[in-house]
C-alpha cells in the first residue's frame, strides 16, 4: 500500500511540475515556436500560465459583441505543457455553436493552464446551445440567449 501511495504521489508531482524552456514566448499567436491554427476571425491563446497553476478553476465566459459576434474565452484550460500545436475552431450550425479545442501533442507528463479566446460570427438574437469539444470529447454543453447584453460565465 505504501508503494502505491508513493507512486501516486510521484505521479501527482510530475503532473504539477512545469515543463518549460528559456525560448518560450507569450505573444498570443505563437508560443515557443508552437503553431496556433484557427477558423475563427480572431483568436488569442496564451502560453503556459505557470503562476496560476492549480489556483483557479477552469471557466468559460461568453459575451455579445457588435455585428452578431460572440466573444468566447476558456480560462485556465489544461493542456500538455510541451505541446507543439494547439488549435481552436468555432462554427455555427443552426442554433448550435460548436467550439473545438485540440492539442495535437506531443504529449508530456506535465500540464499547464492556458487561456483560449475567439470570436464566433454570424449570430442573430435568439437561443443557442454551446458545445465545447476538447480532443474529440465533449467538455461541456450549455445554453445562451444571444442578445446585445449577453454576458455569462460558468465554472466547469
Structure commentary:
This protein has a 5-stranded mixed beta sheet, with no helix packed on it. A 5-stranded antiparallel beta sheet has the order 2-7-4-3-10, with no helix packed on it. The protein is elongated, with a radius of gyration of 17 Å. With 156 residues, it is mainly beta. The chain has 1 helix and 10 strands.
Distance between the termini: 33 Å
**In what range is the share of β-strand residues?**
over 45%
Rg, Cα atoms, Å: 17 Å
What is the chain-wise order of helices and strands? HEEEEEEEEEE
Chain-averaged pLDDT: 76
How are the strands ordered across the major sheet? Answer: 1-5-6-8-9
Tally of alpha and pi helices: 1
What is the helix content?
A: under 10%
Describe the largest sheet: 5 strands, mixed
Total number of strands:
10
Label the overall shape: elongated
Sheet/helix structural class: mainly beta
Low-confidence stretches: 1-38
Amino acid at each position: 500500500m505504501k508503494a502505491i501511495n508513493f507512486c501516486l504521489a510521484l505521479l501527482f508531482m510530475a503532473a504539477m511540475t512545469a515543463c518549460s524552456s528559456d525560448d518560450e514566448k507569450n505573444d498570443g499567436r505563437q508560443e515557443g515556436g508552437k503553431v496556433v491554427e484557427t477558423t475563427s476571425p480572431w483568436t488569442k491563446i496564451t502560453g503556459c500560465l505557470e503562476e496560476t497553476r492549480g489556483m483557479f478553476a477552469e471557466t468559460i465566459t461568453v459575451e455579445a459583441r457588435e455585428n452578431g459576434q460572440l466573444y468566447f474565452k476558456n480560462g485556465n484550460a489544461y493542456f500538455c505543457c510541451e505541446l507543439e500545436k494547439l488549435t481552436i475552431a468555432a462554427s455555427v450550425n443552426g442554433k448550435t455553436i460548436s467550439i473545438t479545442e485540440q492539442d495535437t501533442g506531443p504529449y508530456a507528463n506535465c500540464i499547464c493552464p492556458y487561456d483560449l479566446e475567439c470570436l464566433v460570427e454570424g449570430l442573430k438574437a435568439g437561443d443557442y446551445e454551446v458545445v465545447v469539444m476538447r480532443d474529440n470529447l465533449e467538455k461541456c454543453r450549455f445554453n445562451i440567449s444571444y442578445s446585445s447584453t449577453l454576458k455569462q460565465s460558468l465554472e466547469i
